[in-house]
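Researcher: I'm preparing a figure for a lab meeting and need a structural model of a single chain. I don't have an experimental structure, so a prediction will have to do for now. The sequence is pasted below. Please return the structure as tokens so I can convert it later.
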Amino acid sequence: MKIEIAYGAALKVGDPPLQEDELKRTLAQEIAAGFKQLQVLREEGEVGFIDLPYQDLSSILQLVDQLKKDPPEWLVVVGIGGSSLGLEAALQALHPFLPSDGPKLRILDNVDPEKTAAVLREVDLSKAVVNVVSKSGGTAESMANFLVVFKALSERVGEYEAKKEVVFTTDPQKGTLRELANEHGFKALPVPPNVGGRFSVLSPVALFPLAFVGASVRELLDGARWMAELCEEKAGIENPALLLAGLHLSLCKKGKNIAVMMPYLTRLEGFSRWFCQLWAESLGKEGRGQTPLAAMGANDQHSLIQLFNDGPKDKMVTFLRVENPEEDVEIPGLFSGKETLGYLGGKSLHSLLLNEQIGTAAALAKSGVPSITISLERLNSFTLGALFMLYEITTAVCGLAMGINPFDQPGVEQGKRFTYALMQRQGFEREMEEVKRWHLAGNASLRLKEE
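Model: Understood. Here is the structure written out token by token.
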């Protein structure tokens, strides 16, 4: 299974352009130091995401088999951020390989009451399993949706039976969900303590629901293991994660402060959203970072590409393309006398899509916008696992090379604390005073009213 990273369009493009010797210096200095630091953190047990491909899947698969003895029709996953984005990306990417007669899956991530109410109307909870995902066990959005769903489930089947149909994915020792599991007998799967939420897609966070709906989680881990070992063995430009980290860091130094992820296959749209969380939450610290932006080919050639080509030259673009789709459609040779139709006949939709990607990359280069193209021979469980691991290592190395901690999220925690205060959670009275000081809504506003 082949993956190719073409980076020629990231060199000698732009003003000032990135030169190959500059890239090599960055790889030999900052990136090499960042990778060495990551290896030390892994050896010391501080960072565990690279070890996830080697985990024992038996507890996950046994629980799936146990819960599917009386086949459920639904799986409702409650989680947000790192507890849902990776799962959503994997479900979308692996859709052609999932059994059509398997359980239907719904994800409750946001606390949008209209969405939660709609899911509760759609799902027959008497034929559902509920998976609540929160490593800390205290995420406000997930806990709120859990309480709503568990009450509705208990009203349908009774509280005793409801507890049998709920699975927590949480910290192995601490947190509210772990306490509830110990006190009330809820089933629970562990999230390794040294794996943060946005790096947890290859843990039970996504593996349990993926296995539940019939995805090949073993192949997913096989691909991730292949990539992890490749990155361990290779050095410099031959190491795909170091190459990507070096390109991002070098181009960021040249003012490319926005990193666009643009897949040319709809099944990878969710991956670009997953990348955005991983990149933003890991690297956006201490006044530094590179803003991620998800785009979609060829759709956004008719919207965002105008800005990329003709707007501020502060962007770099990574294209994702798949050489062999699971299906293709031939374009009929109808109305061949029309110039705008005739040239399409006999070609395929996929050939048009890939040629649009090439044309877009060429247009960006002409406009001075550097780009990288990552080509997958196929998109399946193996290559998706490899892609997840590739970008997790890339992100970690890039952050460490920048001299920041890519594994914390202080900018997220402050907003959480203010929310706890506004919801009158005990112990957050001081934060309530800060909210009053910093929240300026109402001091200046425009109000519109129909007369």
